[in-house]
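TA notes, week 10

Several of you asked for a full example with nothing omitted. So below is the full record: structure tokens for the whole chain, then the designed sequence directly under it. When grading your own attempts, check the secondary structure regions first.
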């Protein structure tokens, strides 16, 4: 468990033409946030200072060359670049994509080298980040390559937790991507995360069906009967409390979700539509299953309100709190399981 100093919380800026920097700065405008962590923004002092002035925020920064020079009690900015790229709020520019990746790569290097403890990423535009050396549909996929472990996109808001079997893939490829091994891997990653990151000892997991009405016994598609059901049974018999497949359409409306610690949705919108509808503004996107902790707000670049000072920072703030909480839960879980309580031999009085 971390004993000395505050948790070092790295922040990648995402798309600088969006609302990422704004929500990050507004989060740390509240000085009480510094009681929980030391923020380290990967960008350039000049850019962050400019956005701070545009937004008329009363913040002060500590510019550093490397994350090893972090000062507790300050908002640290690692100067990843010296030049002044052109900020065009609300525009999807190639330049913004390039610098989003520079910031992300620098932050991930610091995470891998233990210069920061956790990473919170501000939103990127999934289209303008594409480059010869960066061909990922999102942070989750990039981090899965950079860090050890099996990744799971896990959306969390209080006791509502929804993970995805398949995440950034086209709908036409969903059915064939859902294999027995993928289901086993995602359920196991989810179960482990619920225990280790959320402190739930015997988590209950629900799987949503792929087809309408989970296929209606094979009338509307066979995947639920032939792929999901046998794996759910196999995992249940092996001791995991996993149930389903449940018809996705009525699952949330009937409040069935509240009987479970987490829900595994078959594809992106099946999970994210109910999640964002039920929790918009306080939801967090957590990349579970990896050796390091990364969270992000549940929203995107919101170009239409960028640069106007209208962005709500609640979700970013939640992402900061979640990253800290998960980091602490994990450390506690590892410490407890490293030294399990020994059975005491008691001498009985004769
Ligand atoms: N983690 C990430 O990097 C994510 C990135 N994106 C990217 O963001 C871009 C835009 O995606 P959209 O689907 O339009 O979603 P979006 O979340 O950017 O916007 C959806 C709606 O919510 C509003 N909104 C979002 N965040 C807000 C906030 N903090 N305060 C007030 N209003 C807010 C927007 O103005 C818009 O009306 C896409 O390029 C997408 O790839 C989307 C989700 C996550
Ligand atoms: N809708 C969630 C999302 O797109 C998050 O993507 P990622 O960049 O966190 O992988």
């Amino acid at each position: 468990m971390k004993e000395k100093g505050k948790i070092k919380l790295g922040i990648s800026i995402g798309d600088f033409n969006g609302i990422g920097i704004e929500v990050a700065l507004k989060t740390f405008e509240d000085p009480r946030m510094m009681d929980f962590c030391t923020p380290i923004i990967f960008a350039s002092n000049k850019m962050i200072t400019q956005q701070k002035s545009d937004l008329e925020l009363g913040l002060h920064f500590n510019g550093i060359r490397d994350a090893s020079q972090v000062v507790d009690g300050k908002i640290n900015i690692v100067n990843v670049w010296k030049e002044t790229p052109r900020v065009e709020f609300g525009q999807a520019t190639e330049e913004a994509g390039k610098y989003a990746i520079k910031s992300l790569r620098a932050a991930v290097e610091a995470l891998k080298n233990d210069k920061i403890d956790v990473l919170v990423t501000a939103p990127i535009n999934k289209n303008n980040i594409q480059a010869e050396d960066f061909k990922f549909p999102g942070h989750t996929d990039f981090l899965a390559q950079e860090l050890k472990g099996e990744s799971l996109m896990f959306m969390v808001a209080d006791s509502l937790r929804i993970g995805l079997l398949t995440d950034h893939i086209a709908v036409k490829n969903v059915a064939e991507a859902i294999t027995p091994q993928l289901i086993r891997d995602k359920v196991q990653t989810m179960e482990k995360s619920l225990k280790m990151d959320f402190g739930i000892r015997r988590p209950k997991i629900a799987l949503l069906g792929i087809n309408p009405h989970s296929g209606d016994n094979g009338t509307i598609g066979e995947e639920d009967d032939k792929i999901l059901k046998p794996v759910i049974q196999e995992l249940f018999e092996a001791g995991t409390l996993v149930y389903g497949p449940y018809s996705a359409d009525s699952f949330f409306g009937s409040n069935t979700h509240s009987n479970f610690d987490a829900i595994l949705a078959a594809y992106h919108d099946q999970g994210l539509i109910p999640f964002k509808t039920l929790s918009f503004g306080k939801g967090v996107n957590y990349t579970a299953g990896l050796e390091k902790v990364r969270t992000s707000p549940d929203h995107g670049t919101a170009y239409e309100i960028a640069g106007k000072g209208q962005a709500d920072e609640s979700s970013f703030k939640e992402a900061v709190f979640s990253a800290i909480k998960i980091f602490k839960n994990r450390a506690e879980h590892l410490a407890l399981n490293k030294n399990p309580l020994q059975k005491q031999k008691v001498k009985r009085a004769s």
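Residues 138-140, 272, 285, 296 surround LD2JLWAY (ligand 2) (CB under 6 Å). Use that as a sanity check on your answer.
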